[in-house]
Amino acid sequence: MVRYKCNSCGQSFETANKVEGGVNCPFCGAKINDCETQNSQTANGYDPNMYNGAYNSGYQQGYNYAYNQFSQPGVFDAGPSGKCRGVAGLLAIFLGAFGIHYFYLGKTFAGFLFLALTVLSCGVLSPFTGLFSLVQGIVFFTLTQEQFESKYVYSYESVPLF
Prior knowledge:
Oligomer: single chain
Largest sheet: 2 strands, antiparallel
Strand order of the largest sheet: 1-2
Strand content: 5-15%
Mean pLDDT: 76
Helix content: 40-55%
Order of helices and strands: EEEEHHHHHH
Number of strands: 4
């Protein structure tokens, strides 16, 4: 695998073999020749063996944080599912007693369960569901996007807990 970094758009990508005469960037279409590739790899301190091929498998396929080694996704950046852990965390902290964060995550059974516990108990259980949601909102902020989506978005659990 040969790793290229485009000097025009800054994106990194790979080809299976070294291409004589250079390649075109799949993101912006700029021509990248072999000399630019060598210079951009050494100038930016890129280690081609850093990821050992792990970025082409599993969860990150088609949504890869590993391509840009200098920046991590923010808490309010949406993942591949379109769900943002920052928004889910704020909903859990401020409206969690009503289960709004579960509705946002697509877990409607859990959302209706929290809503029913709060409304049918006339607010008696509201401190418990609110405290539970407060802790859950803090957990949302501490997880990585990959952990958040595998635990709360893509899981088959009806009521995903901590």
